Amino acid sequence: MKRLFSIFTLLWLAVGMLLQAQTAKAPVFLYAGQSNADGREYVQVYLPEYMKVGTAPYAPYAHLKYANICGAPSTRTFGSRTLAIGSRYAFCDVTNYWIDNASKDDFYAIKCAYGGTAIATGVTADKLPVWYADATWIKTHNAYKGDDITQEAYKNNNALTKNLTEGLASLVEGTLAAVEGGYDVKAIMWHQGESDRNAASSYYVNFKTMIEYMRQAIYEITGDEADKTLPFIFGTICHSSTQYNAQVEKAQLQVAADVPNVYYIDMSDVTLRSDNLHFDGPSTEYLGKQMYNKLVELKLVDGNPVEAVKPKADTNTDIEVEAEREWDFTKPWSTESVNELKADVQWAELKSWGYRYSGSWKTATELQTSTGYKFPETEGLFFKANANRATIDPGKNIGLYSTGIYLIIPKVKPGQYVTIESVTANASKERGITFDTMYEQYLDCIQGGVASYTSQKNVWWYRDTFTEPQDMTFCAINGGIFIYKIMVSDASPIAVNAIQNISAQKSQRIYYTLSGTPVLNPEAPGLYFCEGKKFLLK
After folding, report:
1. For 212-246, how does the pLDDT look when each residue is reduced to its tens digit (9 = 90+)?
2. Is there a contact between 163 and 136 (Cβ–Cβ < 8 Å)?
3. CATH 2.70.98.50 at 22-297, yes or no
4. Is 431 in contact with 450 (CB distance < 8 Å)?
5. Residue 331, Ramachandran bin (φ over 0: left; ψ between -120 and 50: alpha; else beta)
6. Mean per-residue pLDDT for 150-167?
7. Where are the domains of the chain?
8. What is the C-alpha to C-alpha distance for residues 89 and 95, in angstroms, rounded to an integer?
């Protein structure tokens, strides 16, 4: 009996040791995609407070070994990861934080992300590498290995898929193969798709093929049969992004339904930075947490899920506005508004600028005090900024303190004109105001909209080829400006009588460009005036 007990004891110990050996493998996590995977939010703007360990550069990781391999082969080494002021961070930094928090031993994270890159070929700038993984194509293309002065690496070595997998192979050979107990590739975490909007019809096949290629290539490196169906987790594209495409999203969701062990995190209604393209801090944090929670759910990380509150985009859809509106900041402000402004510690008094708000608005908001008092004089206008950007000089102007603040005019109707009277805040520097680049498809600049030393009457027209009202966003050019008046009107604020009179004298119909140049037969796309009417040539 004792002998039998000893045998069972030895077997139990052997099983325990085997299990311990299996669980002792060092976890490896892969992150890849385009700009939202690379990260576009700044550390100083919204790095989660719990990640600000010590003084900057922050080093919130105790167990992480990190490698960013999207570049030359010299980058294919593991090191520490710090978050410096002025640098950007990504969702992977948040995911790694929570993995680190749950870990007792070292783990490895490998990142390969490149902004503006597509899976499809031929839909981005020639210099950009791609994630294309078609079997015939990829045999004749080398791994992207970073650019050089001549950009030959861009042209001849342009496969990001190979950069990721060959980079992993290099790291296995150089570091991971020597890890005591071995290593285990746990998952690929991905965000991409915006740059494939012009090849949306091919996205399903391209996305599926890429995943299959990555899995097979990783299996050939590790020899682990499980890697043939390696977990692949991705975030969807925000619907308010200027590069959102419904067909791309449909293809992504279909791949998740059709391909085993592919999972998605819904990012359709999150908040974005002022460029309306990249995740802001709260959305970056949310995606990072949800990636971690999915790893926990799939038992790829031994930890507890963390609370992840989705930041909802403020679309201002509940705002009712008058069709025609005007704000005149040169008129005297009410005594109440002035007193509220002076009493608020967050509005610091400046000698030449009036009062500057010392804070930030992560989402679009009306000008108000820290106590919630909204200034009636600016009611209906919305602002979004990182910090220290808006100014008020009662009875004189409001100011966009730098290029880091955005002015939003809600629900401009097609066919309406937006007029903003402005001047540079520094007489020795040319400055101005323009629309955010995402509104290029909606607005024509009739007058101004450029940097200048003098006061300008800037006028834009919302093309009447559209049918729905649109929030319009504007920002400063080259630095701080003062704004005197803002007007939204149905009629043009600048006279077209001169054009009509000249046109009437001609036997032929003459069109005029926005600058007043006469054209007999317009060919260039743009807005033209003729006989007091607007004509848009596409």
Report:
1. 999 999 999 999 999 999 999 999 999 888 888 99
2. no
3. no
4. no
5. beta
6. 80
7. 22-297, 325-489, 497-537
8. 11
pTM, two decimal places = 0.61
Nearest to 363 by CA among 392, 378, 381, 385: 385
User: Which residues lie closer than 8 Å to 111 by C-beta, 6 or more apart?
Assistant: 30, 31, 32, 37, 66, 67, 68, 69, 70, 90, 92
Report the run of H or E that residue 524 belongs to, with start and end. Answer: none
Contact 382, 364 (CB under 8 A): yes
Residue showing tokens 């007043």:
516
- What secondary structure, in 3-state letters, does 500-520 show? HHHHHCCCCCCEECCCCCEEC
Tokens coding 537: 């040539």
Question: Which one, of 227, 219, 235, lies nearest residue 33 by Cα?
Answer: 235
The angle at the Cα of 271, spanning 418 to 346, to the nearest 5 degrees, equals: 75
> Rounded to whole angstroms, how far apart are CA atoms 113 and 195?
13
Here the tokens at position 201 are 């019809």
| 178: CB partners within 8 A, 6+ apart | none
Cα separation, 251 vs 260, whole angstroms: 15
- 315 to 239, 269, 272, 410: CA distances (angstroms): 12, 10, 11, 9
175-220 confidence digits (pLDDT tens): 999 999 999 999 999 999 999 999 999 999 999 999 999 999 999 9
For residue 32, what are its two tokens?
């890849």
Asked if the 325-489 domain carries CATH number 3.30.450, the reply is no
3-state secondary structure of 460: strand
- Asked whether this chain's domains 22-297 and 325-489 adopt the same fold, the reply is no
What is the distance between the alpha carbons of residues 40 and 95, in angstroms, rounded to a whole number? 16
Alpha-carbon Rg for the chain in angstroms: 28
